[in-house]
Structures are given as C-alpha cells and as structure tokens.
Amino acid sequence: MKSRITLISFSLILIVMSSEVFSQEKKDTYPLIPQPVLLVSGNGNFKITPEVSIVVNDVMSRKDAGFFNAYLLEHYGFQLKIEVLGKEKKQAINFFRDSMNNKLGPDAYNLTITSDKISLRGGTQAGVFYGIQTMIQLLPAGKVAVPILPAVHIDDYPRFSWRGMHLDVSRHFFSKEFVKKYIDYLAMYKMNTFHWHLTDDQGWRIEIRKYQKLQEISAFRKGTLIGHYGEIPERYDTIKYGGFYTQNEIREIVAHATQRHITIVPEIEMPGHGLAALAAYPELSCTGGPFEVGKTWGVFQDVFCPKEETFEFLENVLTEVCDLFPGKYIHIGGDECPKDRWKSCAHCQALMKKEGLKNEHELQSYFVQRIQKFLSTKGKKIIGWDEILEGGLAQDAAVMSWRGNAGGIEAAKQNHDVVMTPTGSCYFDYYQSKDSKEPLAIGGYLPLEKVYQFEPYPDVLTADERKHILGAQGNLWTEYIPTFSQVEYMAIPRMSALAEVLWSPADKRNYTSFTHRLIGHFKLLDFLKVNYSKALFDLNYFVYPNSGSEGVALELMSAYEGGIIHYTDDGSEPSLHSPLYKGRIPVGQSTVIKAALFDGQFKRGRDFSQMFKLNFASGKEVLLKEPPHEEYSRGGGFTLVNGVTGNLPWNGSDWLGFSGKNLDATIDLGNPVTFTKVSIDVLQDESSWIYLPASVEVLVSDDGVSFKPMKKVLAAEMKPGQRLITLTLGRTTAKFVKVIAENAGIIPSGKPGEGNPAWLLTDEILVE
Ligand code: TNX
Q: Which residue is closest in CA terms to ligand 1's atom 12?
C-alpha cells in the first residue's frame, strides 16, 4: 500500500499553507474519471483569461503545456503564452516537473487550484500530463469566453502500470485520424498502453517495405460476411474492403501516442490468424495454398508453417516493426492456432522429431520461442495470448490472459508478467445493453457495472505472485464494428470504468460514486461529440416468483438515481400519466410491460418493453440436477419458468449456461395439469461455442420419483439455428415434467473453440 501518511501530510501542509479552506464534501460533484486518490475541494475558482500564462520549469513540460494550449484553442478559441521559469508565478498555470512527487508513487502528480494560481507538479513527465487531463475534465463542458476551474487540491497516482485498450483494425479498418482519436480517449482516462491488433486473417494493415504483396494482396479482401457468423445461409457482399497504414502514418501515430504518454504495443499474429499473409505468400503455409484473404470471421485452419523461410519472413517483418515502435513489447499473437495442418505436414512432423517435441503444442511453443529469441536480439520482450502457455512458455514472455483468469494465474505462478483481459470483464465487443435496438454485436453481455466490478488481481495469487500482474486491458475486436462511431459506442463509457479500476485505489472504488461522476462527465463527451453509449440509463429488470400467488413479478431498476419510473401493461407508451412504479409488478397472465425513466418532465434513456408468455410452468418450482455454470446462472432454475423467452443478448439473468454438461430440469406444476406440448428455448452460436443440444427428451411423473419417458428429439431433427424446440405429446396429465437437454459435447475440429466443451444455453421451458 502506498504511504497514506505521506499523502495526508502533503495535503495538510497545503491546507495550512493556503488561504482558502478545502473540504472533502463536494467530491462526487466533480466529473472526474478515474477518481483521484485524494481530492479536497476549496472555495472559489481560477479564471483562465487570455492574460494568464503557462509557466513551465523545463523543456519537456513545454510539450505538455503545448498540449493543454491546443485543447484551449480547439475548444475555447484562444491559447496562452508559455514561459520557462525557475519558479511558479501567480495568475499563471504552473506545470512543473518535481521529483518530490515520486514519493507518492510512479507517475504521480498533485494539482492545487486556487483563485491565485494553478500549481501542477508531476513526478514524471507523464505525471504532469495526467494532471493536465484532470484539469481538462474539470473545465466547463461548453464553449465559454472565460473558462474557470474550481479550487481543489488533488494528490494522485495510478494503481497499475499497464492500463490498456486494444483495437482490432484487421476485421475493420480505421483511418489514421480515427486511430489518433482513439488514442486521445485513452489519454483522457489516463491510460498508457495501446495494443494495436494490426494483422489477422481478414487483413494485414501495416506496410512492410520488404514484402510488397502484403500491401497489394494481404491488405484487401474481396468481400465481407453479412450479418452474424453462423447464420444460415451464409451471405457475403462482394465489395473490395481493406487498407493499411504506411510506415509514415505509423510514425505519425506513434508520435501522437508518445506525446500523450501512451506506449503502442503492435501485434503481429502468428502462427494462427495469419491467412491474409498466406494469401500473398502461400509458400509459408503447410499446403502451399492457394488462399484468399478471409471474408468471414472465426478461426481458419491454414496457419504459418514452421519452416525456415517462414521464420525468415517473420523476422524480416518484425525487424521493420521493431524500427517503427519504440516500446519494449511486441505482441506475437499466439491465440487460436488449429494444429490440423501441422499434424498432416511431413515437414512439421520431421521437425518435431528432430527437436524432440512431443506434440503440436510443443511445436507451437518452439515457434514462439524462436521468435522470442529473435526479438530479444532487438531488445524487445514478447507478449502473447494465453495459448502461448501450452507446450511451455518462452523465456521472459508476458501473457495476456483472455480465456478467463486461469492463464494469468498460471503465468504469474511461473514468474512471468501478466496482463489480465478476461472475456467476461474486458471484451468490449460484447453487448452492453439488453435493448433490442442495440447494433449487432458478437454476443455475450458485459454491462458497465460488470466492467467496473472487475478486479485484476485474482484472489488465489500470493503477494509475490501478484507483482507479476502488470494491469489489465479492454479489448475491442471489430468483426461487428464497421465504423469509428460504433467503436466509440462500444468502447465508451466501458473504457472509463476500466480506467478507474486500473488507476484508482481499490478501496476507493464505488459504483454509485462512479455513475454520479459519469453522468457529469457525459457533458464533456457531448461537448467533444463522442458517440458514447447511454446504456447507463436503461431500465434493468429482474423477474421473481410472485410470492404466494400465480405467475411472476417484475422488478425494475435504474443505475440513474435521479429519476422515477412509469409503466403500462396495456401495450400503450408509458408517459408521466401512466402508473408510477413503486415496487415489483405482479404479472399473472401473458402481457407486455412497458416502462420509461423520467427525470422531471423528460424521459431519460430508451423505453423498456418486456413480453411475458405465461403457461402452466410459469412461476413454478424447478429442480436442476446439475447447477449451471456460474457465469450463466444468475436466476437459477427459476429462469426457465420466469415467463421471459428469447431475450438477447444472452446473459446471467435470462439464460442458463451449461459448459459440456446436460440440462436436467424437473418442474413441479403444483397440481396435476393436462397439457399437449412441452417446448424448450435454446441458442446456437458456434462463434461463441454455443451449440444446439444433441437431444431433448421429455418425461412426466405424478410423484416426482418415477418418470415416464414421453418423447425424444435428436439434433438431426432440429433445424440449424432453431430456437424453440417443441415436443408435441397428445393430451397428457401430470404433476411433474422433466426436460433433459443433452449437451453437444466437445466442439469439433475446424470450428471456433475446437476441442473445448460446447455450451448449452437455454432460457425457458414452456408447458402448454
Ligand atoms: C477471440 S481473443 C479472438 C479474436 C476474436 C475475438 C472475438 C483472442 C485472442 N482471439 O480473434 O476477434 O475472440 O471476441
């Protein structure tokens, strides 16, 4: 723990020294994200008139002063003169590099604003820059003649050293200007690492002068999948799509990032996700091709073949990459590399024999180790996705843990550095809202609050092992993100929640405080014309059994505390005249509940609408033989009879998920009931490892002990993508109904996630 005593004494000295009185009260009223370590508010404010000057104590701070000036000019229409002086001045904004601050922590700064002057002192140049970002967030979010800054004192420093965001520019390409804008957003939230995913199956995006065909062939695909991966039939457009960054553009972007104290980690994918390069150089594959640049998503069988000419190619590529990027890390990918081609390749098998490699995982490890050794001659360290653990980690390699925390834990235990980026908390390509009007996304559900609750340190690590957790990163894969405006929408504000996780002290983290500040911060995002998501204003819901009565009960809630909810149950639009929501709404029959959040006269966010399809099973007791996976278990067995069918995206409250296991659910109907059909709603999305069940069987019973099989359907009788699987029984009377949905088992080769257990996702059983 950083020395709190130092912090407190620092501020006490300031309080005594200053003529103004600082107080803690107004804390959440400042729209600051991430929350500073210590903030004490004062009285009065500092007016930035054109007469004010910026004073710096060295040439380096001059650059940061220039950055602040550029912001003033762009948003308020004037800039200030900059002076280099040995000491602070009154009626000035003083940006000083001051090693005193290093006692607070790396990259610390303190900022004292009074009506006399602004004093910003950073322990490092980055510290000064972070203080400037704090000032920018405190400035008025609108064009005013005289911008003012409130009197405050702030002591601040980051919790983690890797505060990152990733952007995939292969699946969709974003211009140099947009990449710079993205970097600006990282800077606004005091993030310091930009992981630039430059190559993948669907496009190679970095100019490599030695290999012209990477620009001519690999940078363009002849069409793109329409809709979602796995949709049947598959549809493609025939539009040539692509682009790449020239080395000059890359240098410009690196300089842009450097000015913002952001390190770029370039990623060159290998040995998998390399189809775009193989389309131009098929001789680097095991089969020799020919190949086309990928037009669809997922995982491709053809990967780099571990031949000498492949290593020569990759080393030449990496030599150019190393020259362009000054940071110490190069990301070499390493994820999702199918081994089928290597298994049937004589060269690979001979190489394995020669090197004494037991299996293809060890061959992948051999591949990565050769690249690691090469990059170390260039003074670089490698980082790769957690698959690089399989078959043995290369020396000194850092691991990016994406398939949950396990890879990160294992790497830290092996004394390797780790960046946490588990899908469940860090994948910003997942849906952030359950609203049906959300743009198409890959799947999953990662609302703002879940990002905010993420803790990068896995519990199981010892204090020593924890030192290897450098921090975390949000990933933005762009299969379903074709425009930069949608990049903004998916990334913000989830990026700001992650920034707070990574910067602010763990004991300061408070979601309510965060949302208060975020609502204030939205004004700045509006001012900057950022297309951020307003899912924060969505009404959330949870369905409960209707205690003591038939049917279910709907609870509505909002993260926005300043509003009230009105609702209807007759299909009409909710207005201020509709019933006021005061507590759970009983739902006794099939209906649609609509609701909206009002702040005074105005609606906030989108209207809520939920259809309930009630049947004999609704609200009844459900017994599950095996519990669902903890990620998809929130509502327990009741989820299957809550009257809500088919809500997408799937998530913990509407869907139950079984990884590799069967669903075995028994519904107690309370009394013997006569019915003619039983249905189960299931999901199929192979890109997310979700498969239709291998079979569905219905059994009935009068005593809940001995069950009579009634009907069974097999996968072969189901249609691809089929949702509701209905088993028609003829008139049947029973008190208990059992449904067994058999998991599809292990994902077959050639499919995303091959070799892993399939998911079975279901959200409702209907007895009618
Ligand atoms: C898995 S995360 C991938 C990417 C996809 C992403 C989609 C990782 C290392 N590989 O190729 O774009 O899922 O969420």
A: 477
In the residue annotation, 273 being an active-site residue is answered as: yes
Please, which residues have CB within 8 angstroms of residue 151's CB and are 6 or more apart in sequence? 20, 22, 41, 42, 43, 44, 45, 46, 113, 114, 115
- Asked if residues 472 and 160 have their Cβ atoms less than 8 Å apart, the reply is yes
By most ligand atoms within 8 Å of CB, the mutation choice from 419, 421, 477, 751 for ligand 1 is 477
Alpha-carbon gap, residue 616 to 734, rounded angstroms: 11
Whether 98 shows a pLDDT value over 60: the answer reads: yes
SS3 for 309-358 is HHHHHHHHHHHHHHHHCCCCEEEEECCCCCCHHHHCCHHHHHHHHHHCCC
For residue 760, which of 679, 675, 655, 647 has the smallest C-alpha distance? 655
Does the CB atom of residue 385 touch ligand 1 within 6 A?
yes
Q: Give the pLDDT confidence of 232-285 residue by residue, as tens digits.
A: 789 999 999 999 999 999 999 999 999 999 999 999 999 999 999 999 999 999
* Helix (H) or strand (E) run with residue 220 in it: strand 220-221
For residues 463 and 366, membership in a common domain is answered with yes
Asked if residue 1 is part of any domain, the answer here is: no
Residues 452 and 598 occupy one common structural domain: no
Structure tokens at 12: 């006490």
Together in a domain, 296 and 429: yes
299 Cα nearest atom in ligand 1: 11
Cα(381) to ligand 1 centroid in Å equals: 22
Calpha distance 341→133 (Å, rounded) = 50
And the tokens for 558?
């909002």
Total domains present in the chain: 4
123 and 190 together in one domain: no
Q: What six digits make up the tokens of 460? A: 């199981």
Determine whether the shortest distance from the Cβ of 429 to ligand 1 is under 6 A: yes
Kindly report the backbone phi and psi dihedral angles of residue 547, in degrees, each rounded to the nearest multiple of 5, phi listed first: -55, 125
- CA-to-CA distance for 441 and 480, rounded, in angstroms? 5
Which residue owns the Cα nearest ligand 1 atom 8?
335
What is the domain extent for residue 694? 621-767
CB of 685 closer than 6 A to ligand 1? Answer: no
Lowest mean pLDDT among 48-57, 129-138, 459-468, 714-723: 714-723
pLDDT tens for each residue of 16-71: 333 334 444 455 689 999 999 999 999 999 999 999 999 999 888 899 999 999 99
Q: Which residue is catalytic, options 107, 156, 168, 200?
A: 200
Please check whether residue 526 lies inside any domain of the structure. Answer: no
| 335 CB near ligand 1 (under 6 Å) | yes
336 catalytic? Reply is: yes
